[in-house]
UniProtKB/TrEMBL annotation, chain A:
This is ABC transporter permease. GO terms for biological process: transmembrane transport. It is found in: Cell membrane. It comes from the Bacteria. InterPro entries: BP-dependent_transpt_permease (IPR050366), MetI-like (IPR000515), MetI-like_sf (IPR035906), OppC_N (IPR025966). It holds the Pfam family OppC_N. The chain crosses the membrane at residues 25-46, 98-121, 133-154, 160-176, 215-242, 262-284. One of its GO terms (cellular component) is plasma membrane. Keywords: Cell membrane, Membrane, Transmembrane, Transmembrane helix, Transport. Residues 94-284 form the ABC transmembrane type-1 domain. It is a multi-pass membrane protein.
TrEMBL record, chain B:
This is ABC transporter permease. Residues 94-307 form the ABC transmembrane type-1 domain. It is a multi-pass membrane protein. The lineage of its organism: Bacteria, Pseudomonadati, Pseudomonadota, Alphaproteobacteria, Rhodobacterales. It holds the Pfam family BPD_transp_1. Gene3D superfamilies: MetI-like. It comes from Pseudooceanicola sediminis. It is found in: Cell membrane.
Length: 297, 323
């Protein structure tokens, strides 16, 4: 890390070099980029709009992969029970899953970082109060807390995001606090204090940038976790409503007909979800190796 | 020491009180029980009568107090669906879940530890890379989808194992269990594997780290110098040392497995508490939902408390840091 600093390398360049030096991570990163791009461009690249009733034909329902429908269109991955093209439904589902996962991950990062910084900088009672709460949150399994929140507040996109933020902020808070504690004691922070710079600017402008490496690693892994957790909740029928079909909901719908042999409705969305979560985790694992000074040696 | 335990117990009670308050407010105060209990065309007089009989017109604090007093006596009300005391329904289903969770833990140990040893003793080789990538895959595989694929492969295509349900149970030493019959045992295999997969990944990682940290230590070198075979060093000396963190983590994971059983039980139609809670949420069976959350949270708090206390008994450093 210090060697990189001496070479005058920016953190972005260091991450790029680190990812490219491992073939596994390079492939995973490319897959992530491709998936994110296709999710954003879903309305442009999907063969049909699966939620526009004028475009789907009920006679094409339950067609296996690679079959041609009445409309003359070839369904690469088959169709679902309503005659929707699975590939299109999956692209739209990927869009929803990514949107929910990334939003929840970023919100959790903001909340967790803010609380972690305050805990580290203020110390004392505030610190022990926040950290007790963090310990408490980390002690409970994700799914139990999410279940409780959804039971109390009901279903909906906003509630799922709330539940995910609630279960994930503690990871960020713990990591940021640990790094910020070390940074707060360093000379530059002390110098900033002596200059009379307000506390919020020292925390946000001076200490926070130095906490970025662990934050990036955790954010990556937590986004993967959020996507998987949302899919699980939606599968259980207590997550997203049917009007927002994420990958989890597609899988749940396909599950009902899976035992009848109509495997493609649940296998393909599941594979897509797996590839997404797996690639993000591989990238996260590599980032941990690159950004952790102890492992980088 | 007593002070430490007392503080921990007080904290545990506080957490339980807060959880009960949140759940009470969420389930009883925000939602309106009248909508479920009364037909849509009920008259105002009927509404008033039911409101009074359920004490819904009492101040909120008094309602909460009554709820707590009743809950402490094990009374969470009667299930709307089963028309039996909620707690009774939950305790009836709990053994099935515990059996599933215990089996998964055993599976994760007998599969995870050997693989972790393999990876740990051959760092940075193809074996190590493959096992570690496999463990990331284990973390990444969405639990519910992985369960579906197990059914797909082993029940639908191969037809080896039954897909859903618990099968026949028998009695061993007075406990009703699936282990007693062959039918019950084969029904247990798929759900237990499903639940165990993430734990296997976790055990692999813990074992690998443990092996790598233990191998350079002096006692291993000494054992080698004494001419003890490498195999015996690994299977006795190293194994004993790394078992402590693994068992501790799995102790804590026990609770989270009970929570994750929700997913497994839903897929495999396993008649435990996990399936019960999802069904109850969908059917708005509030007493069951409330009782489930409070029972599971209490179990969790007790497990964490026991682990904390045991840890501080074993390791005095933790005790001094906490006080």
């Amino acid at each position: 890390m210090i060697a990189a600093r001496i070479r005058g390398e920016s953190m972005g360049a260091r991450i790029a070099r680190g990812l490219l030096s491992s073939p596994k991570a390079t492939i995973a990163a490319i897959i992530c980029v491709v998936l994110i791009t296709s999710a954003i461009l879903a309305p442009l690249i999907a063969p049909q709009n699966p939620y526009d009733l004028t475009e789907i034909d009920f006679f094409d329902a339950k067609l296996p992969p690679m079959s041609e429908g009445y409309t003359g269109m070839t369904y690469l991955l088959g169709t679902d029970g309503q005659g929707r093209d699975m590939l299109s439904a999956m692209l739209y589902g990927l869009r929803t899953s990514l949107a929910v996962g990334v939003t929840a991950g970023l919100l959790a990062m903001m909340v967790g970082t803010a609380l972690g910084l305050v805990a580290a900088y203020r110390g004392g009672v505030i610190d022990s109060f926040i950290m007790r709460f963090v310990d408490l949150m980390l002690g409970f399994p994700t799914i139990l807390v999410a279940l409780m929140i959804l039971v109390v507040f009901g279903q909906g996109v906003d509630k799922v995001i709330l539940a995910l933020v609630f279960v994930q902020w503690a990871y960020f808070a713990r990591a940021v606090r640990a790094t910020a504690m070390v940074e707060t004691g360093k000379e530059y922070a002390e110098a900033a204090r002596c200059l009379g710079i307000p506390a919020w600017r020292i925390m946000g402008g001076h200490i926070l940038p130095n906490c970025l490496p662990p934050l990036i690693v955790i954010a990556t892994i937590q986004v993967a976790g959020a996507i998987a957790a949302e899919a699980t909740l939606s599968f259980l029928g207590i997550g997203l409503p049917i009007t927002e079909p994420s990958l989890g909901l597609l899988i749940a719908n396909g599950y009902q007909v899976m035992l009848a042999g109509l495997y493609w409705m649940s296998v393909y969305p599941g594979l897509l979800l797996l590839v997404l979560v797996f690639s993000v985790n591989i990238v996260g694992d590599r980032l941990r190796e690159i950004l952790n000074p102890r492992l980088a040696q | 020491m007593t002070v430490f335990i007392l503080r921990r117990v007080l904290q545990a009670i506080l957490v339980l009180a807060i959880t009960s308050l949140v759940v009470f407010l969420g389930v009883y105060a925000i939602g309106d029980p009248l909508e479920i209990l009364l037909p849509a065309d009920a008259s105002m007089a009927e509404r008033a009568q039911v409101t009074a009989s359920l004490h819904l017109d009492d101040p909120l604090a008094l309602q909460y107090w009554n709820f707590i007093v009743q809950a402490l006596q094990g009374n969470f009300g009667r299930s709307f669906v089963f028309n039996r005391p909620a707690l009774e329904v939950i305790f009836e289903r709990l053994p099935a879940t515990l059996e599933l969770v215990t089996t998964s833990l055993i599976l994760s140990l007998i599969i995870g530890i050997p693989l972790g040893f393999l990876a740990g003793t051959r760092p940075r080789t193809v074996t190590d890379e493959t096992i570690m990538t496999g463990s990331i895959l284990g973390f990444s595989l969405p639990n519910f989808w992985q369960g579906m694929m197990l059914i797909m492969i082993f029940s639908v295509w191969l037809g080896w194992l039954p897909s859903t349900g618990r099968g026949d149970t028998g009695t061993i030493l007075g406990v009703r269990t699936s282990y007693a019959t062959w039918d019950g045992f084969v029904h247990l295999l798929l759900p237990a594997t499903n639940l165990a997969l993430a734990q296997i990944a976790l055990v692999i990682r813990l074992t690998r780290t443990g092996v790598q940290e233990t191998m350079p230590l002096d006692f291993v070198k000494y054992a080698r110098a004494r001419g003890i075979s490498e195999r015996r060093i690994l299977s006795v000396h190293v194994f004993k040392t790394i078992l402590i963190p693994i068992v501790t983590v799995l102790g804590i994971e026990f609770g989270s497995l009970i929570a994750f059983a929700v997913v497994t039980e839903t897929i495999f139609a396993w008649p435990g508490v996990g399936k019960l809670i999802i069904d109850s949420i969908n059917m708005l069976d509030r007493p069951i939902v409330v009782a489930y959350i409070l029972v599971i949270v209490s179990m969790f708090i007790v497990i964490n408390l026991v682990v904390d206390v045991l840890y501080s008994l074993l390791d005095p450093r933790i005790r001094s840091r906490a006080s």
